[in-house]
Automatic annotation (TrEMBL):
Keywords (A to Z) from UniProt: Isomerase, Manganese, Metal-binding
Matching Gene3D superfamilies: Divalent-metal-dependent TIM barrel enzymes
A Pfam cross-reference name: AP_endonuc_2
Keyword match Metal-binding: yes
Protein name (Swiss-Prot/TrEMBL): L-rhamnose catabolism isomerase
Residue ranges of domain Xylose isomerase-like TIM barrel in the record: 100-291
Record InterPro entries: L-rhamnose_isomerase (IPR050337), L_rhamnose_iso (IPR013451), Xyl_isomerase-like_sf (IPR036237), Xyl_isomerase-like_TIM-brl (IPR013022)
Gene Ontology molecular functions: isomerase activity; metal ion binding
Length: 431
């Protein structure tokens, strides 16, 4: 397998970190043993964790005010794969990449697949883009895509999604994520019911093109770019559409796509209960679709989501397999560092959720012992599982401290030389 960072750098880094890590690991192991938990099992569990990388996340994003490009940004899909390979090499938690078309459309699909395969990277759900007009596009999406009143725009949007499925199929992907910005800015602009009818009609065309072993993920979002009425604004609409379309249609939860204070873990529980939880776009936010690093603002919420996922897994076993993907955008950090950080934070919530004593919790709930029920969760959340995560990485050939090792490798400075900035670079500035 090809690696991007010299494996000698990783070994050197780990040799220095080993003594401290072993001490911390032994101390945590003792503490967990007293709670009836086997640290070795937890470390093995951590090693199974995987979250997919968003291809658009390795570039510097923008706001609607400006974009400040970073040094050494990837200029094409192959360079994006290189950056994703670095992230996976240093975390061993991100073996799949989620591509976005047409941004990532390769001229040679087989060559792209082969290129990724050399790094042992695969492809998760592919994303369609009908929220922008592309150069030379025949029909505009200014007034909507899958919901547009123009039959030509709608047909073009359906055709684009079908093309995404074909590209994804050639890459070995098994899913299509559809997020549309369609909606209205003013009351009266749109017949609300009519727009959703057109959406469903268009999506039936997309659904019909899905291979048998594929799923389509419907991503809802409360607002933006439509400010008054977004067609797929909430999980209720998403659920209704997924139900209407059929068993291959599921709902995708992006953590930044809800009103402030929404109980997202409850949405997760509902969708899991009714078999419609397709996947996630993990990120964090303070106000809206901020697309900040996972766990940077509200790590407890992330933990509570994983607590629901652990409950669903315990109930449904192997059959319960939502896709985990990151969706974030960086203005002020190195995207590779932020993505590594996010992957580790999501993995942290996954491991912490395994610390919840589910039998004790069920008994507290049965007894209406509210205080202890809440404490059972807090107890797991407060446990610092960092030594488990570091040991899991080490055993999988990754560094104990991914960001430290990445900085020591000088990768970014090297790329800044190899990848001089493109004039007017913009591609992935939209989130
Ligand atoms: C948009 O807000 C969504 O989060 C989508 O997932 C979008 O396709 C992605 O963020 C890339 O722009
Ligand atoms: Zn998203
Ligand atoms: Zn988001
Ligand atoms: Zn978003």
């Amino acid at each position: 397998m090809n690696t991007v960072i010299d494996s000698g750098i990783v070994e050197q880094h780990n040799a220095k970190a080993m003594a401290n890590l072993e001490a911390d690991y032994a101390a945590l192991g003792g503490m967990l043993a007293r709670r009836g938990k086997d640290i070795e099992q937890l470390t093995a569990l951590a090693q199974t964790f995987a979250v997919a990388l968003p291809s658009w996340g390795v570039g510097t994003g923008g706001t609607r005010f400006a974009r400040f490009p970073g040094p050494g940004e990837p200029r094409n899909v192959f360079e994006k794969i290189d950056d994703c390979a670095v992230i996976n090499q240093l975390t061993r938690a991100t073996p799949l990449v989620s591509l976005h078309f047409p941004w990532d459309k390769p001229t040679d699909v087989a060559a792209l697949r082969e290129y990724a395969d050399r790094y042992k990277l695969g492809f998760d759900s592919v994303n369609s883009n009908t929220f922008q007009d592309q150069l030379g596009q025949a029909h505009t999406y200014k007034y909507g895509s899958l919901t547009a009143l123009s039959a030509e725009s709608r047909a073009q949007a359906v055709q684009h999604n079908v093309e995404c499925i074909e590209l994804g199929r050639a890459l070995g992907s098994k899913g299509l994520t559809v997020w549309v910005g369609d909606g209205a800015n003013f009351p009266g602009q749109q017949n609300l019911r009519g727009a959703l009818e057109r959406y469903l009609d268009s999506m039936r065309g997309v659904y019909a093109a899905l291979p048998d072993d594929w799923q389509v993920y419907i991503e809802h979002k409360l607002f933006e770019p439509a400010f008054y009425a977004t067609t797929i604004a909430d999980w209720g609409t998403s659920f209704a559409c997924a139900t209407e379309l059929g068993p291959k249609a599921k709902c995708l939860v992006d953590l930044g796509h809800h009103a402030p204070n929404t109980n997202i873990e409850m949405i997760v529980a509902r969708l899991a209960q009714f078999g419609k939880l397709g996947g996630f776009h993990f990120n964090d936010s303070k106000y809206g679709d901020d697309d900040l690093d996972s766990g940077s603002i509200n790590p407890f919420q992330l933990f509570l989501i994983f607590n629901e996922l652990a409950d669903a897994s315990a109930r449904d076993g192997e059959a319960f397999k939502p896709s985990y993907m990151l969706d974030q955008s960086h203005n002020v950090t190195d995207p590779i560092e932020s993505l590594m950080n996010s992957a580790v934070e999501v993995q942290r919530a996954f491991v912490q959720s395994a610390l919840v004593d589910r039998a004790a919790l069920a008994q507290y709930q049965q007894d209406n012992d509210v205080l202890q029920s809440a404490q059972a969760l807090k107890h797991a959340f407060r446990t610092d599982v960092s030594p488990i995560l570091a040991m899991a990485r080490l055993r999988s050939g990754a560094p104990a401290d991914p960001v430290g090792c990445y900085r020591a490798s000088g990768y970014r400075a090297k790329q800044a030389e190899l990848r001089p900035a493109k004039a007017g670079a913009s591609s992935s500035g939209i989130v």
